[in-house]
Every structure is written in structure tokens, then in C-alpha cells.
Amino acid sequence: MTKKSPAAPDLDPSGLRKGLTSYGDNGFSLFLRKAFIKGAGYSDAALDRPVIGIANTGSAYNPCHGNVPQLLEALKRGIMLAGGLPMDFPTISIHESFAYPTSMYLRNLMSMDTEEMILAQPMDAVVLIGGCDKTVPAQLMGAASAGIPAIQLITGSMLTGSHRSERVGACTDCRRYWGKYRAEEIDDQEISDVNNQLVASVGTCSVMGTASTMACIAEALGMTVPGGATPPAVTADRMRIAELTGAQAVAMARQGLTIDRILTADAFENAMRVLLAIGGSTNGIIHLAAIAGRLGLDIDLKTLDRMGRDTPVLLDLKPSGQHYMEDFHKAGGMATLLRQLKPLLKLDALTVTGRTLGQELELAGPGFAQSVVKTMDDPVYPQGGIAVLEGNLSPGGAIIKQSSADPLLMEHEGRAVVFENAADLADRIDSDALDVTAHDILVLKNIGPKGAPGMPEAGYIPIPKKLAVQGVKDIVRISDGRMSGTAFGTIVLHVTPESAIGGPLAYVQNGDRIRLSVSRREISLLVSDAELRRRQELKPISPPTAARGYKKLFLETVTQADQGVDFDFLRAARPGDPAAR
Ligand code: FES
Ligand code: MG
């Protein structure tokens, strides 16, 4: 009989045993770990239970997460009432307006931080507190790769404000008012007044931007408790969701309900349906592709487009409609939407509750009269919010948010007015000398994943000032970048492959003719193949590089939009995919 280590019997709490630091002696490793947690004031009784990690993304630089201290308190209450031990830990937090050069550049870094800290520290399940645009996808990507039981807690949307008796909210109204200011329709005093009202509280943008989109997608994926997407940040409903999330995390730890059982192909199909039906942010596609990629799954753009033809936009929220997130919540939130979409959903997909989406919908009851979520017979827009375009300008696909585009411009042929990069655009867009009319097509190059780098939201090219002051509100715009989910206009995005790696977009010249036909799903450069080849030979492209640091890693390994702009080495290896290692 081997002699028992003297420290072994009571040094065996469930969660703390996980992933022992290597000192070459597991008994000693656990002994040390326990000494340090005792040093923080924990008793043996506190340790002998499931350990629930909490990814704490509170940050002074992230007002969208300004309610995290209250959420933590409610979460911890929920965890402890259910018999678990809450252990919060910091990770990177990213806010859209405070991240340079663009939040997307940092999303993968946050996902790596999340994955590695989940794996490095002992926990039986993890709660991910996310809200602002890139945080939820980063957390789901990281948790998917870490593979333990995980549940998403959304911070919740901000409240709407009021400007001269008009209801306003970030960020669709930020853009609308800035457009008015550029067109000299409002003065310095008014733009300063409205600045006080656009973000009326902590929480995420109040329209169907990327944060709201990802909140709805997280619930559609089954990654939040039912009703977890919509309560505003500062409400009691949001705090009760946090308490419930804590309790559910303990149940998941006990059941060993790992994330791969929830994030299945069916769950992603449900998420795509919801993305289309909410008129969701175009960024949602990129994030879904990145999350799916971590599990060896692909988001096929052609499938998305096919689904879009029989999935109408049902949610009447800005920028496709008129309401805000708090209205959606009062209208019953995601249950109201999912009830309408039920015939199109995979109802057997499992959720964090251990029940299926179909079972959760039954439990949610019959619904009530409201006007925010429309019916399939009377939708906001007859097709899905996003259409996928193809053609010689974008062999790997491009997208357009048709539900917030000008119907008159969706079948359009025009002359290209080309900007070589974001700096060129900033230099010339407001110049009186710019040769441009409302019938032209603005083309912006070098704002793709490698080009900028980080694929900034510069695809929302402003209306040239000389046209804006004439009252022009929309013009066809094309780029390899992204745009904010809160933006609107006839804007073609995610042109793949991007210009910085020599995609056809790189070879568009001033005066070329371009054809956009959303009905035919076409984006074409009306230049012959021979002429395109001649231009390519004349000016071969060398992709951008960096000498050191995160930028070097980024430029060497980032994938294109269709693979989620994830790093190739973070995607799950799959047969026949040369990008995966
Ligand atoms: Fe954070 Fe809009 S800036 S959600
Ligand atoms: Mg945004």
C-alpha cells in the first residue's frame, strides 16, 4: 500500500483541483494553491463546491460595461445561492470608440486572453460578461476553444435620451445628427446639446447595432438564459438575469454541460435566421464565422443568402426600423421574435438550461399584442436584412444590408470615384475639387483585415460634403471594410479578397463602370479580364508586414472576412482546410 500524502485528504475541493500548476509534485501544487486562497480569507467549506469563474470585463474605458459592478454582485448572489463559489478575474475589455486603431484589431487578442485564462485557472464553469460589440464574439470564440461549460451574461442596452423632444439613442442617431451637422442643417450649439443625450446611461448602443445583434445571437445560440438578450443595463430585469445566470452556471458545472454541446451546426443555423430576422449588423456574419470556425464549422455565405430569401426582417428597430432595444424588451424580447420564427428554427438545439430551444419557447408561453416584432405576413422587410453579392469585383463574396439601403440605388450602374485608403479619403472627401455626382459609386480600398489593419468600420464612407449640402442622403459605396451595425445606406462591404492582398478591388480606377444589382446578387466591375490582368501585371501588390509584436502576428495570420477575420492558427483544424494548423 502506498503511503498517502499527509496533505491529501482535505485538499481536494472539486474546482480547485483543476489544472494544477506544475511544481513536479501535485500534492504540493494543491497545498500551495490552497494556502494562497486561504490567504484571501476563504474557509475549507467555501472551497468544497463547484468553482465558477467570471470573466470580468469592467473597465473605465468601457462605458458599455459600466454596470459590471452591479452585475457581479447579482451573479455572485446567484452562484452562492446555488451552492457554487464565484471567482471573478479580469480580461481585456474593448470599447468601440476607445480602441485604436479599431476594436476589431483587438478582438482576437481578447479571445486568446479569454481562452487562456479559462484554461489557466481552476474553474468548473465560466460566466462571460460581455456587451460592447467585440466582447461577446471574443468571449464566445475563446470559450468555444477552451471547451468547458460556459454561459454568456450580456451587460444590456443603454436607455434612450431626449433631444428637443425627439427620442434619440446611440448610434444611429449619432450618425444622423452628424450628417445634419456636416450638411450645415444644425449649428455648433445643437450638435453639442445632442451629444449629451445620445448615450443616456451606461450599457450598449440602444439600436440594432453589433452589440444588440450579438446579444440576440447569443440567446439564439442557446448561450444565455432565456430572455438574456434584451433587458436594459440599468434595470431590475437585467440584475435578475444576472442572478439566474449565476445559478445556471452552477447547474452547468454539476452537469458537465460543455459548450460544444450547445454551439452545434443547428445552433448556428438558428443564429443566422435570427441575424436576418432582426435586421442585424453585418458584423454579425463575421463574428458568427469566427465562433463557428473555433468548432470546425463554417458559415457558408450562400446558405445565408438562401436563408435570407425566406426569412423576413420582423424586428422594427433602428436602423432598419423605428424602435430601440428597450422597446424590444418591453415587447417580450427574443421569445416574441422566436415564436414568429418558430417554423424556420431548429427547435431541438440545446441551450444552457439543459433544455432545447423548443422547450424554452413552450415555457415562455403564448405572447401578447405588441407592435415591435412584426408577423411573417406583415414584415418590416420582405427578405432577410443582409444579401450576399458576387461578381468579378468580389470573387470571395461581399455583402449589403439591403434592409437599410435606398431601394432606388439597389439596381445601379455608375462611374467609380476611387480612394486608395482611409487617409486618401479623409484628405479629399470634403474637397470642392472632388469630381463626384450622386450617380457615381464611391470605392474605398485598403480597409480590409490586413489593409488598415483590422478591417475598421470605415466602410460607411461619408457623403462628400459638396453632395451633402445639396441634400444627397445616400450614394452607392463599396469597400473591403466593415461598417457599424448602427449605420445605414446603400453600402457594399467585406469585398473579398481584400485589396491589400491583391483582390480585384485593388485594380479599380477612377472612371471605371461598376454595376450593383441586389436582385441578381451581383457586384461587377465592367472592365475586361484582359484589362484587369494588364493592371495586375503593371502593379503587383505586396501585402503589408510588421517587424514585431501583436501587429506582426496579426498581419501574418489573420484570415479574410469569410473565415471570420480570426487568426488561422486559432481555427479548429479541419480536413482540407489549408488555413488551419
Ligand atoms: Fe459599445 Fe456601441 S459602443 S455597444
Ligand atoms: Mg458598433
Brief overview:
This protein is of the alpha/beta class. It has helices at 26-39, 44-47, 68-81, 103-120, 135-146, 172-182, 188-195, 210-220, 236-255, 265-277, 283-293, 301-309, 325-330, 334-341, 357-363, 422-428, 465-468, 529-538, 549-557; strands at 51-56, 85-90, 125-130, 150-154, 161-163, 166-168, 386-389, 398-401, 411-419, 441-444, 476-479, 491-493, 513-517, 522-525.
Number of strands: 14
- CATH architecture label of the domain at 386-538: 3-Layer(bba) Sandwich
Bound molecules: FE2/S2 (inorganic) cluster, magnesium ion
Percentage of residues assigned to helices: 25-40%
Largest sheet: 8 strands, mixed
The gyration radius over C-alpha positions equals: 25 Å
| Lateral arrangement of strands in the main beta sheet | 7-8-12-11-10-9-13-14
CATH topology of the domain at 386-538: Glucose Oxidase, domain 1
Give the count of helical stretches: 19
Task: Please explain how this structure is put together.
The strands form three sheets. Strands 7-8-12-11-10-9-13-14 form an eight-stranded mixed beta sheet. Helix 6 (172-182) runs antiparallel to helix 7 (188-195). It has 581 residues and is α/β, with parallel strands linked by helices. Among the domains are: 1-43, no CATH class; 168-195, no CATH class; 386-538, 3-Layer(bba) Sandwich (Glucose Oxidase, domain 1). It is built from 19 helices and 14 strands. Residues 1-13 have low confidence and may be disordered. Helix content is 34%, strand content 11%. The structure holds FE2/S2 (inorganic) cluster and magnesium ion. Keywords: Iron, Iron-sulfur, Lyase, Metal-binding. GO terms for molecular function: hydro-lyase activity; iron-sulfur cluster binding; metal ion binding. Residues 372-564 form the Dihydroxy-acid/6-phosphogluconate dehydratase C-terminal domain.
